[in-house]
Amino acid sequence: MKVFKRLSIFFMLILVSSCGSNSAQKKSDFKINFNSKSNKVSLNDVLAVSIENPKSHIIDSVVYTFNNKVVADTISFKDSKLGKQVISATVYYEGTKQNTSKKITVLNNAPPKVYTYKIINEYPHDIESYTQGLEFHNGALYESTGQRGESKLRNVNYKTGEVLKNVDLADEYFGEGLTVLNDNIYQLTWQKGTGFIYDINTLEKTSSFKYGKSKEGWGICNNGEVLYKSDGTEKIWILDPGTLEEKNYIQVYTNKGKVVGINELEWINGKIYANRYQKNGVAIINPNNGAIEAVIDFSPLKKLVKQHPTLDVLNGIAYNDVTNTLFVTGKRWDKLFEVQIIEK
Question: What gap in Å lies between CA 135 and CA 141, rounded to an integer?
Fold first, then answer.
């Protein structure tokens, strides 16, 4: 009897598993078609969509959605986010319904502008500092540094380079970007999926938080209301500052395609300024849609610092709202540059 019961349970499990598998693998009878030769569009484009119905079902109606918003069968991308997006359709027919979807890539409709710069001042910077994050708050400069066993959080006198306060991270952590919001310093670490929160007045660690889908920590900034976090891909995640939950994201794109390696971030006058990993330049990103609107080529600066074996790339952007100027430095650089951006 026990053997019979076990066999019955075994075959029931197989049946349930098989039914579930068939249900999950069932394909829609319908497909979405575009009036486009490729699955790419640009901002301001208008796309006509239709349903392919190879089984000749009698269709009652179709409801299209784009990024979870109901749209007509002609979609305007004027206010769309860039990157990989999804167009879905719910087809009502013969007393039932089916869903189908199709991916599309939205590109910017113009190439990035190219800006240059003018050096206003040069200040000393710790040549041993593997700079990952840089930010001013009320005229004071805060810096996060990387490398395991060397990672730190610092309050620095930017005019002299003197370290006013210093917090060492545990050797297991590789420090990354930082930002200041509501008297809290948020500091990322690289591959441990963990960020730290400090009291800005004492630099005492008050809490920590875990990442969600972003997995790695690279750069972080804020607009006074939410946090923006990069993870080394083309995505910049939008975090709730209260819960640190990743609510949404933008994808960084040009008119040609995605741009990965988005690193240190800084919020400046409504835009996100971003270093790109292993590049000596800065991208200016529209936070609403992810478009790179301009780039600044800072590569000549690397020749103006002390040349040594461990010298690395530009990294570190900080906007001082007291002086209304931009500051940049790099990994193992002995100088901090105050610059003025020149729009060509």
Answer: 6
- Whether 209 and 252 map to the same domain: the answer is yes
Order of strands across the sheet with 292-297?
A: 262-268, 271-276, 281-285, 292-297, 113-124, 335-343, 325-330, 314-320
Q: What CATH number is associated with residue 100? A: 2.60.40.10
pLDDT digits (tens, 9 = 90+) for 306-331: 999 999 999 999 999 888 899 999 99
What distance in Å separates the CA atoms of residue 56 and residue 78, rounded to the nearest whole number?
A: 34
Residues 39 and 153 occupy one common structural domain: no
Distance CA 144, CA 205 (A): 14
**C-alpha torsion sign, points 337, 342, 343, 344:** negative
- Burial (CB < 10 A; 0-12, 13-18, 19+), residue 295, is buried
CA dist 235 to 97, 136, 247, 287, Å?
A: 34, 24, 13, 11
Q: Is residue 81 part of a domain?
A: yes
Nearest residue to 97 (alpha-carbon basis) of 28, 43, 32: 28
Which alpha helices (DSSP H) does the chain contain, by range? Answer: 2-25
Q: List, for residues 161-206, the tens digit of each pLDDT value.
A: 999 999 999 999 999 999 999 999 999 999 999 999 999 999 999 9
pTM equals 0.87
Q: Are 198 and 144 in a shared domain? A: yes
Phi and psi at residue 12, to the nearest 5°: -65, -40
CATH label of the domain that carries residue 214: 2.120.10.30
Q: Cβ atoms within 10 A of the Cβ of 44, count? A: 12
The answer to the question of residue 9 being in a domain is: no
Q: How far apart are CA 133 and CA 217, in angstroms?
A: 11
Nearest Cα to 59, choosing from 97, 31, 88, 27?
97
Q: Which domain holds residue 40?
A: 27-107
